[in-house]
Amino acid sequence: MAVNAKRNSIRSRKRWLALRKIVQMTALLTFVLLFIAARRDGWPPDMVNVPLRLDPLAMLVYSLATRTILIGSLLALITIGLTLIFGRAWCGWLCPLGTVLDIFTPKRHRRKQSSPPEKLRAVKYVLLLTLIIAAVLGNLTLMIFDPITIMARTLSIGVWPAFDQAITSLERTLYGVPFLQEPIGSFDNLMRPAVLPIEPLFYRDTLLFAAVFIGIIALNWIASRFWCRYLCPLGGLLGVISKVAIVRREVREDCTQCAACGRVCPTDTIQPDKNFASDPAECTICLDCWAFCPQSGVGFPAHRSRAVWNDYDPNRRQALIAIGAAVTGLALFKSDATARRENPQLIRPPGARENDLLDKCIRCNMCSRACPTGAIQPSITEAGLVGLWTPVLVPRIGYCDYSCNACGQVCPVQAIPPLSLDEKRQRVIGRAYIDQNRCIAWADHRDCIVCEEMCPLPDKAIKLEKVNVLNAGGTPVTVQLPHVNRDKCIGCGICEYKCPVNSTAAIRVYVPGTVG
Amino acid sequence: MSHLSRRVFLRWLAASLGTAAGGELLSACGGTPTPDRPLAAPTKFAAPTKITVPTAMAQPAATLMPSDTLVSPTTTAAPAGAPDLVVARGGEPQALVQQALKALGGIERFVKPGNDVIVKPNMCVAYHSYEYAATTNPWVVAELVALCLGAGASRVRVMDYPFGGSADEAYQRSGIKEQVEAAGGSMEVMSRVKYVNTDLPDGVDLHKCYIYDDILKADVVINVPIAKHHSLARLTLGMKNLMGTIRDREMMHADLGQRLTDLAGRVRPALTVVDAVRILMNNGPTGGNLDDVKKLDTLIASADIVAADSYAATLFDLKPDDLAYIRAGVASGLGRSDLSNMKIEEIRVGG
Question: Under 8 Å CB-to-CB from B226, ≥6 apart: which residues?
Answer without folding.
Answer: B121, B122, B133, B134, B135, B136, B137, B274, B275, B276, B278, B279, B280
